[in-house]
Protein 1
Amino acid sequence: MTKRRYDASGRRAAAEQRRLRVAEEAARLFGEHGWAGTTIADVAAAAEVSSDLVSSAFGSKAGLLMAALRRNGFGRHVDAQAAFAALRLGDEPDRGVRLDRIVFLVTRSLAGIAPLARVLPLAADVDPELRDLVDASEAGLVGIAAQVVELLATGEPHPDAVDEVYVLMRSETYLALVGRRGWSEERFAAWLRRSLDDATTA
């Protein structure tokens, strides 16, 4: 009689669901109570798991905040680069379709990140690990901006094109227009499309 191989897929799926639940609760609590007002123990209690599990899964409070940002902004993708790559824009021949997909992803991501974007500056000031993670995230955003220019440029792009696209896609830009100026998400998306088009048209 042969032994049946142990199938760990169910266990892995359950563990992933716990991670997602923890990240969701972390996003909610950081958004409501800020960096100083949220602890690993608070998040663990809200997600109905142990503090040890949260610490082992995310490493630190900084890691937990970054996971919350990724969860809110990029869903199941590990980071912005993975979410952008999943669009498979290189396979799409129509520039207008590429532009629409980019605008949809950026707007949806920024809307999810916005409640936590206010937490980051204060948190990065007091936590060196988080400051390093934020710096790495910013470098990644510059890389995405360069890809956007490459994918949308209609000719030789302006030397400032990458920096312009980088600014257009920052959470601070979204917060300034939607959070402070009262724009709707639809108005922001329409403006972003026009601005990306202008920035990448020779």
Protein 2
Amino acid sequence: MLQRATLIVAGIALLLTGAAAPAAPDYVTAVWRQQSLEFAYQGTNTAYSCSTLQRRLEAILRSVGARDGLTIVMQRCTDQADAFVQITLESPVEATEANVAAVTQHTSTEELAAKVRNEALPTPENIARFPAEWRTVSMSRDKTLKLESGDCELVKQLRREVFPHLSIRVVRDNLRCSVAFGNVGQPQLSVAALIAVPN
């Protein structure tokens, strides 16, 4: 009887331990993809200064997976309600066979530059791979972004023109950017973004 009671207690303890154990992170293997994107901001309700727009863009792109070192060049910006921007960034993509093949295809200019610098360009066999995870990012709840109602048009235009080029899935889109009545609250957009796991 005592042995049976001991086994029951041990079984309950095992179940409780298993229930309390945290789930293993759902990581995927990724590689960095470099892109150069053009973005034209046209504001109806919000006119940023050039430096403010640049900071907003950098913060938002970093939050959805862009690597340190992204560059944002204001090619046409006069502190008015519109600007033309050149964005160069690296962001994670899943290391599928197609993606790896795409990021290791090099132009003749890149091959010549690497030869001059005596550098080896990455190949499908040796390109650096790293763990990444799909993480939900809320434009309204992410405290580091500090977005306001006036940022609604910017987020909406990024969602339409830039986000489709990144590893991003829209989770909830309730953006209400009104030309007639102004923007209603913080930008209501949540996305799942592929983000590199810190070392």
